[in-house]
Write a sequence for this structure.
């Protein structure tokens, strides 16, 4: 299991689940590296916004909260569900919500 988090949410003791890449796709820090205060500072100074860490260190929304978010999304798109473009847009928004949780 892995979780994508903001660098500012990272804490010493976490472990990278995926390598951190620079914009030119060069590996800055490899998979499995421990997260340290120094590493966090270096990532922030290089403009890295997100990292992927092992486990699920930050509690995301519970099942009930997730179901409420999807229900609210369905309500917002209820009047346009016959439109294929809007159905696709709803699916995109649902995927974004899933990645952020």
């Amino acid at each position: 299991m892995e979780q994508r988090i903001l660098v500012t949410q990272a804490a010493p003791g976490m472990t990278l689940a995926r390598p951190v890449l620079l914009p030119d796709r060069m590996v800055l820090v490899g998979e499995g590296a421990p997260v340290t205060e120094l590493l966090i500072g270096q990532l922030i100074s290089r403009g890295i916004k997100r990292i992927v860490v092992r486990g699920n260190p930050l509690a995301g929304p519970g099942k009930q909260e997730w179901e409420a978010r999807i229900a609210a999304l369905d309500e917002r798109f209820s009047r346009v569900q016959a439109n294929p473009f809007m159905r696709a847009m709803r699916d995109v928004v649902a995927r974004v919500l899933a990645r952020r949780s």
About this structure: The first strand starts at residue 2 and ends at 6. Residues 84-100 form the longest helix (17 residues).
